[in-house]
Amino acid sequence: MAPSPELVTAALATVNDPEIRRPITDLDMVKSVDISPDGVVRVGIFLTVAGCPMRDTITRDVTAAVSKLDGVARVHVDMDVMSGDQRKNLQTKLRGDRGPEKEIPFARPGSLTRVFAVASGKGGVGKSSVTVNLAASMAASGLKVGVVDADIYGHSVPRMLGVSDRPTKVEDMIMPPVAHDIKVISVGMFKPEGNTPVVWRGPMLDRALHQFLADVFWGDLDVLLMDLPPGTGDIAISVAQRMPTAELLVVTTPQQAAAEVAERAGSIAAQTHQQIAGVIENMAWLPCPHCDERIAVFGEGGGQTVADALTRTLGSRVPLLGQVPIDLRLREGGDEGKPLVLTDPDAPASAELRRIAAGLSKKSTSLKGLKLDISPTKH
């Protein structure tokens, strides 16, 4: 006996849109359901845009969900495209009816998303590798995680996470690609094919950052990580202005030259009144392949030096969150789009990154920087 329309609809409710991560039935993406007496089920699906990169994924998931029902002989999936009015209704359903200047959801009073801006004083300290592996570790633990590749000139996060898809645009809302259960956005996804450089000045950088934060549909995230460019330039200032409650994570290597520059990058918090979540020392040592002795390739003590200096500058404790040892597979995983914390979670570098991620994932109990909806009264 062929299944009832109610059973087929219930099966379709288990299929999530790959980009929005909500059931296709909730998003009004199911156009039609036709069931023949001999068990052939034909499902019509509305795609958000023509040429949707998730077309094959949706077809596969719908087919798999409906095929599990008793009495189903075959499943046919027919694709159509939403009209302009349907896309507007979808945007309203997801984001509400907002004005022309979109609000950054993470900057709203009472936002439950914890935002970390990962900074460094100079390039080459592994800031992006740390960002990607922290994000992957948090996502693997069950958190809803997003990553903004705010390093406009040196964007590398898409490669490190293995993202090849481009974002999908629904009206003026951008759906970010997903990799390893992490939502990702980067200027590299909007460039022409090839390694074309981005030649932008301050106002364009600020506008791009605002679009990444406000135009992208992030959904309800637990954590948002922002991979900042090295130094204290335009993007760092824009983050402080647009995301004043973002906490800084300062990445350095052990060598004193890198530590001095990292200290300057972290000291921006004294002027912007941001909090510093802590310091991460990357490339802390190289485990000897023969005796496991720690070889201080880049010296020692840089991370603690930065943490102590920032503590003195800010007048509040800045902790050294961890020391990540050198592992060639961190670099290899970045090139292959496979974070080490996922491919070998027990490696020493992975264990330290996972420990740091677990500490950062804990909700802060401090009220510092949180806007409270109270006002003084006179007695």
Question: How many domains in all?
Answer: 2
Largest sheet: 8 strands, mixed
Q: What is the CATH fold-level name of the largest domain?
A: Rossmann fold
CATH superfamily of the largest domain: P-loop containing nucleotide triphosphate hydrolases
Strand count:
15
Uncertain parts: 198-202, 364-379
- Please give the alpha-carbon distance between the first and last residues: 75 Å
Number of helices: 13
What is the N-to-C succession of helices and strands? HEEHEHEHEHEEEEHEHEHHEEEHEHHH
Mean model confidence by pLDDT: 84
Model description:
Strand 8 (178-179) and strand 9 form a beta hairpin. Helix 4 packs across helix 13 and helix 8 runs parallel beside helix 10. Mean pLDDT is 84; it is low at 198-202 and 364-379. The chain has 13 helices and 15 strands. The strands form four sheets. An eight-stranded mixed beta sheet has the order 8-9-5-10-4-11-12-15, sandwiched between helices. Helices cover 35% and strands 20% of the residues. It is elongated, with a radius of gyration of 23 Å. It folds into two domains: 5-95, GMP Synthetase, Chain A, domain 3 (2-Layer Sandwich), CATH 3.30.300; 105-361, 3-Layer(aba) Sandwich (Rossmann fold), CATH 3.40.50.300. It has helices spanning 5-12, 55-67, 84-95, 127-140, 157-161, 202-215, 234-242, 256-266, 268-272, 302-314, 328-336, 340-343, 348-361; strands spanning 30-35, 40-47, 74-81, 114-120, 145-149, 168-170, 173-175, 178-179, 182-186, 223-227, 247-252, 276-282, 286-287, 294-295, 320-324.
